[in-house]
Every structure is written in structure tokens, then in C-alpha cells.
Amino acid sequence: xxxxxRRWSKERSRRSRSNWKLxxxxxxxxxxxxxxxxxxxxxxxxxxxxxxxxxxxxxxx
Length: 61
What we know:
It is a single chain. This protein has two helices and four strands. The chain has helices spanning 10-16, 57-60, and strands at residues 27-29, 36-38, 48-49, 52-53. The protein is of the alpha+beta class. The longest helix has 7 residues, at 10-16. It has a domain at 24-60.
């Protein structure tokens, strides 16, 4: 099995970890009820996705 020849320096470890950050989900406005929702997901308020009713919100409550 292959083994690393030398250990990574502290600088190299920290540089590789520099992009580990949380990103807030992208929010877009719903075309039917104008509430904010996540992109590529049905609206939780009205249940519409891409102009079609996909979730019966009244039944889900």
C-alpha cells in the first residue's frame, strides 16, 4: 500500500482547508405566491413547481 513520503506542512494543510465554509442556500421568488423558496424545489407555501401544482398543501397540514 502506498504511504506518503513526507508529512504535509501546517501551511499546506491550512491552505487546503481554506475553502471549507458553509454556503447559504440560494433563494428565488415563487412565481405564483411570491414567497422565497429554494431553487429547483417546490414551494412550501403553495406547492407549485415549474407552473404545476405538485403538492397539496391543504392536505399536508
